[in-house]
Amino acid sequence: MHNIIFDNVSKSYGNKEVIKQLNFEIQEGERVVFLGPSGCGKSTTLRLVAGFEDITDGKLFMGGTCVNNMAPGKRNIAMVFQSYALFPHMDVWENIIFGLKIQKLGKKEIEKRAKDALEMLHLDGFEQRLVKSLSGGQKQRVALCRAIVKQSPYFLLDEPLSNLDAQLRQQARQNLVRIHEINKSTMIYVTHDQVEAMTVGQRIAVLRDGTLQQIATPREIYDNPSNAFVASFIGSPAMNLITADIVDGHLFIGKVAVPLPDRITAVLTGKHSVIVGIRPENIHITTDDRAMLKGSCRYTENTGNLQTTQLYLADGTAIFSQFAGETYEIKAGENVGIQFLWENVLFFDRETEINLYVREKGENKYGNYRN
Ligand SMILES: Nc1ncnc2c1ncn2[C@@H]1O[C@H](COP(=O)(O)OP(=O)(O)OP(=O)(O)O)[C@@H](O)[C@H]1O
Fold first, then answer.
1. In the listed set 229, 262, 287, which residue is the last one of a domain according to the structure?
2. Same domain, yes or no, for 209 and 239?
3. Ligand 1 pocket residue status of 13, Cβ below 6 Å
4. What is the mean pLDDT of residues 238-247?
5. 257 and 148 share a domain?
6. pLDDT in tens, 14-68
7. Span 129-153, mean pLDDT?
8. Which of 42, 211, 212 to mutate to test the pocket of ligand 1 (most atoms within 8 A of CB)?
9. 195 and 80 fall within a common domain
10. Residue 108 shares a structural domain with residue 204
11. Ligand 1 mean position to 40 CA, how many Å?
């Protein structure tokens, strides 16, 4: 069994607590992404698993064993760093087999593993090339090769693709996922890139200021973020967050009152100070005079397949609408009608920012308003 359990794990540097009481489990063979803004503690958490940092409080279990005091070399991990950490004066082959020679594996086994890895990452033919003569993308693939030949049950990656351009990143992401589906190691992948998180992770752990905000599948994080922070961190353009008040069945955005559907008021009765969360694709622009809100177009961008429009509501709130397919052309300054797709609207408590509609196991704990 090669799972990882964080049991109340905290980490401080001096008086500063940078990781705060992490409690979650990564299953054997699972691909989990740590996602969050710079400084939220992603790398530190990964380094706690690798054993490069000591845990200040709590316990970390790997494969059922508490590893708080276990040296990194004993943890059976393979790691890939942003900087690649290759030996520039050695050729590709030497870089890849270096760790295996130290492990004193047999010559045949070393050759087989290295050849398989080179083939998997389309590096056959590069064996004799000096690392310093390779491009960034090639170096990154050598670093991946060097990690996968170890065949370790734990695979840790710290922003491994951040030095690559957009196109190479996409290829590298696909390579990584493919390798993982073959190796089925327990994988942790650190990134601050939400697209990478959505495409690589089977689950995403979102961190903020050293605390875990949510750990869930990409779909769940996108559809049902636990709070306004998670909501705003995933999606591009980001989810619209609109300050509003619910009063007796109406949503007040500034002075404009919009009647709420019964199934929402059945759950959110009385008064609530909220942040309305609505993704750009759930805001429709219409010429229909009966639209729930009126706004004016600030600008619109058309990328062929997608139209993205920034709109001002009557109270000055700026929101984004985005939709695919043919649309009528909207001009800057034009007045338009705005319609929310209510079934996809979220409500966050204004003070705590907590999602008032987080569903548990597919069910909305406040009722079935979303179904
Ligand atoms: N050796 C250290 N001594 C003191 N503080 C540290 C040390 N390493 C990290 N920190 C602090 O811990 C916090 C978390 O840092 P960490 O590098 O884990 O964040 P991160 O989410 O990986 O950020 P980034 O995406 O920028 O790498 C930061 O406030 C950082 O300044």
1. 229
2. no
3. yes
4. 95
5. no
6. 999 999 999 999 999 999 999 999 999 999 999 999 999 999 999 999 999 999 9
7. 90
8. 42
9. yes
10. yes
11. 7
Task: Decide whether any atom of ligand 1 lies within 6 Å of the 36 Cβ.
Answer: yes
Is 137:164 a contact under the CB 8 Å cutoff?
yes
Tokens of 326: 């043919």
Same domain, 253 and 141: no
- Cβ of residue 44 lying under 6 Å from some atom of ligand 1: yes
pLDDT of residue 156: 96
43 lines ligand 1 (CB under 6 A): yes
State the CATH number of the domain containing residue 283.
2.40.50.100
Nearest residue to 239 (alpha-carbon basis) of 189, 194, 301: 194
Mean pLDDT of 270-296: 92
Tell me how far CA of residue 90 lies from CA of 93, 100, 113, 243, in angstroms: 8, 15, 19, 58
Question: 370 in a domain, yes or no?
Answer: no
* Residue 335 near residue 322, CB atoms below 8 Å: no
How many CA atoms lie less than 13 Å away from 363 in the CB half-sphere? 4
Query: Any idea what the CATH number is for the domain that residue 123 is in?
Result: 3.40.50.300
Decide whether any atom of ligand 1 lies within 6 Å of the 40 Cβ. Answer: yes
Q: Is 28 domain-assigned? A: yes
Query: Do 272 and 209 share a structural domain?
Result: no
Kindly report the protein residue whose alpha carbon is nearest to atom 5 of ligand 1.
13
Q: Has residue 371 been placed in a domain?
A: no
Total number of domains constituting the chain: 2
> Can you list the pairs that 107-116 forms with residues at least 24 positions away whose Cβ atoms lie under 8 Å?
110/149, 113/149, 113/151, 114/145, 114/149
Q: Which of 229, 244, 264 is at the close of a domain?
A: 229
Instruction: Show the domain range for 359.
Output: 230-364
CB of 194 sitting under 6 A from ligand 1: no
In three-state secondary structure terms, 314 is: coil
What is the best residue among 22, 35, 43 to mutate for testing ligand 1's pocket, by most ligand atoms within 8 Å of CB?
A: 43
Question: pLDDT category, 326, cuts 50, 70, 90?
Answer: low
Residue range 302-331: mean pLDDT, rounded: 86
Centroid of ligand 1 to alpha carbon of 209 (angstroms) = 10
In a domain, 292, yes or no: yes
